[in-house]
Amino acid sequence: MKAQVKDLNNKDVGQIDLDAGIFGIEPRADILHAMVNYQLAKRRAGTHKVQTRGEVTGTGAKPWKQKGTGRARAGDLKRPQDIGGGVVHGPVVRSHATALPKKVRQLAMKSALSSKAKEGKLIILDKAEAKDHKTKPMASALKKLGIESALIVGGKEIEVNFARATANLPKVDVLPSQGANVYDILRCDVLVLTKDAVNDLTERLKG
């Protein structure tokens, strides 16, 4: 399938062939949902922690004798029912990551790319380069392209001036091709790929 290639001045500078098996499949909502859950679960820190009965600071001495006081027996005052006592079955430090097969992850990426192409929200740029690091000219150039909220994916490395010029644009994210992911593609309104990004993603998803 053919796609028009534009430059930052919104001028057509040629065409590019997009692999129909990557950019032209029928998007799978269930696969996209599973992938987003997988990504968000994996990025959770999992550092939540409560103190159990054995970790609460306090004496281990028996507070009163076992019998004859009329009170319930107690071994110490670190029990869950005591004020300042330990917590039962609370959260512990753990990983929230789940497993998702590689083929499913690849299908999710193909579905995300294809959904943007199908919606007409895929723009192919000749290259992501800027003459200087100023934000204002970059904002003006993106406005010409009709971009307000976008994920821009470059080649293996992002050109320094382009990265700096887009850094202060609140609704524009820039990633190298190896950082492209389903969650960020779906989160932004428009997906912008450079020709290098198209080649890198095609190579990555071809297998």
Describe, in plain words, how this protein is organized in 3D.
With 207 residues, this protein is an alpha/beta fold. The protein folds into 2 domains: 2-43 and 99-205, Ribosomal protein L4/L1 (Ribosomal Protein L4, Chain: A); 50-90, no CATH class. The protein has helices at 20-23, 29-42, 102-118, 135-144, 160-166, 182-187, 195-205, and strands at 2-6, 12-17, 122-125, 150-153, 172-175, 190-194. The protein has a 6-stranded mixed beta sheet with strand order 2-1-3-6-4-5. Helix 2 packs across helix 3 (102-118) and helix 4 packs across helix 5. It is elongated and about 95 Å long. It starts with a strand and ends with a helix. 25% of the residues are buried.
Topology:
Blueprint: E1 2-6, E2 12-17, H1 20-23, H2 29-42, H3 102-118, E3 122-125, H4 135-144, E4 150-153, H5 160-166, E5 172-175, H6 182-187, E6 190-194, H7 195-205
Parallel strand pairs: 1-3, 3-6, 4-5, 4-6
Antiparallel strand pairs: 1-2
Helix pairs in contact: 2-3, 4-5
Summarize the structure.
Helix content is about 35%, strand content about 15%. It is an alpha/beta fold. It has two domains: about 1-45 and about 100-205, Ribosomal protein L4/L1 (Ribosomal Protein L4, Chain: A); about 50-90, no CATH class.
CA-atom Rg in angstroms? 27 Å
Tell me which CATH architecture of the largest domain applies here: 3-Layer(aba) Sandwich
Q: What average pLDDT do the residues reach?
A: 93
Separation, N- and C-terminal Cα atoms: 19 Å
How many domains would you count in the coordinates?
Answer: 2
CATH class of the largest domain: Alpha Beta
Helix amount: 25-40%
